[in-house]
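Table S4 entry, DUF3098 domain-containing protein.
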Amino acid sequence: MENNNTNFRRFFGASLTILGVVVVLFALIAFLSDGKPVLGMSISKAEAAAPFIVGMIFLVTGVNLVRES
């Protein structure tokens, strides 16, 4: 049972890490796009901070889950 829990934590941590990297990259591209639409969404520089913060939370949480399992 312990092995299943460890495998799930590693899988979930890896998924969160990948999602965090994707969201952080999206936020950085949106920040640098200078008001042009990114993936069909028009995001200003101030609005790009929210996905960056959420992506960093996902990234840090995922790394910690993988590291501790």
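Strands lie at 37-38, 41-42.
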